[in-house]
Amino acid sequence: MLSPERPGLFRVLCLFALFEAACLLDTGMLFPRESSSREVKELSGLWSFRADKSPDRNQGFDKAWYKSRLRETGPVIDMPVPASYNDITQDPTLRDFIGWVWYEREVVVPARWITDEGTRVVIRVGSAHYYSIVWVNGVKVTEHNGGHLPFEAEVGSLIRKDPTQPCRITIAVNNTLTLETLPPGSIQHIDDITKYPKGFFVQNIYFDFFNYAGIHRPVLLYTTPTTYVDDITVVTDFLDNTGQVNYKVSVQGATTARVKVTLMDKDGHCVASSTEPFGVLKVVDVNLWWPYLMHESPGYLYSMEVRLMAANERSTHEDVYTLPVGIRTVSVTSTQFLINKKPFYFHGVNKHEDSDIRGKGFDWSLIVKDFNLLKWMGANSFRTSHYPYAEEILQMCDRHGIVVIDECPGVGIKDIRSFRNASLNHHLDVMDELVRRDKNHASVVMWSVANEPASEMPPAEFYFKTLIQHTKALDPTRPVTYVSNSHYARDKGAPYVDVICINSYFSWYHDPGHLEVIPLQLNTQFENWYGKYQKPIIQSEYGADAVPGLHSDPPMMFTEEYQKVVLQSCHDVFDQKRKQYVIGELIWNFADFMTAQGITRVVGNKKGVFTRQRQPKAAAFILKERYWRLANETGRLPPWTKYPCSL
Ligand code: BDP
């Protein structure tokens, strides 16, 4: 458990542990940023595309499609990157495709990248779902197991081999989920030819969102010098008015290099500096990073410029990387969640990366719209249900002060075979990748290792104990949780989490239509969990489906009125319990989203308070009123934000 009591010693220990943990990972995964020493070339746009519809989905490998231009090995179509491929065409077999798809793009690389041997050229894929293999000019450069997280490879030597040729990038992506993937799934072949066509198979999944696939986030080429800043780790603290930035810079490509670290405020003034690769920067009269609606200037970020100088016999290289840094602390007691030593109440949402046509494809317009809606409704937080979101989204959270519970793709761990070592090892690797990617975001205040696993099964105890301890060793500065919907007394992982997160759907999946049971059942739920574990509780999901435009009074399920009353009945109980140990409420869901087809889903899950096109349902106004009231009660707001109607 994180303790606020002995912050000084505790923080120093944490810092060393975090640096040790960072060393266990091979390399860093800094977000690619341009600087005087680094260039970035975005490869977003149209790529050539083909799904391998051969019966075993292996034709692409048998015929080595990566060796020549994709259009020379068969027909191709245009495919936007980033985007899920599923909803781009009118072809139902592509929407529901399972197996390998192939992407290809030729890139003209600046001549200097080729001629200058002192330049490292890296290809980086923001994420592709699920398993990816990357070739450059027919040579395999990397493969990656898992969606939602970035991967990269150095390609300089390959593009230098024949500078007269454009650089041809081929990426094969396979969306098949097995008992050992995260999320898990299983492939079921059905051989009964009296009922199913020959070769019929389905992908079974145990989670409630469409298994969108393809290259979901931007693909980039970027450069660094050959001696470069590979990773930076920061852990922040403060005492009275003085902020502390504990940092460590990892360098690759040289055994000796000089480092200059400069911390600048918003106006570009230097507030602290050092010439050591690790140490503590002290900031007098610190501007802390505060959540949205908790302070008049939320999301304050300093800039930490790391300048690296390395010399060899012939020349001097300089690498410059600038990291945004928010100075804040996070801690947990048995009844509170503290940010900067002050109680923080999560009034926010669960989201999905999901929209029409793009599926899970990265889209700035959608991201900015969603942030505007979050701020409009007075939400101060969200959970990245049920997988890590794009880094650009976390950067927005840092800047706007939106607090994040960062969840890994451990959703739908229901089959007992998914608790075996192979699954656990992969889950540990994914946590390594997630913490490595997101450790420096001020907005990220807690890790969630899973959503609604079968945590009552006997092997769940060892599984979650190992996973949570591993995550705490990776990052001792943040609390760790997983989201439960199992019975409080039988939940095997709860003793190991710092915060209890519970999902429940009273008068929906249980006692449908009986709104009157909500107060009693929700109250009992809280008392049971707190009584057994004495840990703070977040209602991490609650809600009801509403088909927009469906109305009834008295309220009936699936109408906007019913959704409203479910929310209001829960809010009454939250208001009693937040005076005790309930530290947050996150609505399920921010917006309607696509799911697999099934008899309980009407073209997707309709529990959004906004439609999939981001228009408000009646429930959005209920939440807006409530969240602004909570903010006015618990936060320190500037006059212009006091009344939402003035926005
Ligand atoms: C919860 C799941 C979430 C679902 C939601 C629902 O965590 O992924 O979409 O139920 O059924 O149990 O709407």
TrEMBL record:
It catalyses: a beta-D-glucuronoside + H2O = D-glucuronate + an alcohol. The keyword Hydrolase applies. Residues 330-631 form the Glycoside hydrolase family 2 catalytic domain. Its EC number is 3.2.1.31. One of its GO terms (molecular function) is beta-glucuronidase activity. Belongs to the glycosyl hydrolase 2 family. This is Beta-glucuronidase. It comes from Pagothenia borchgrevinki.
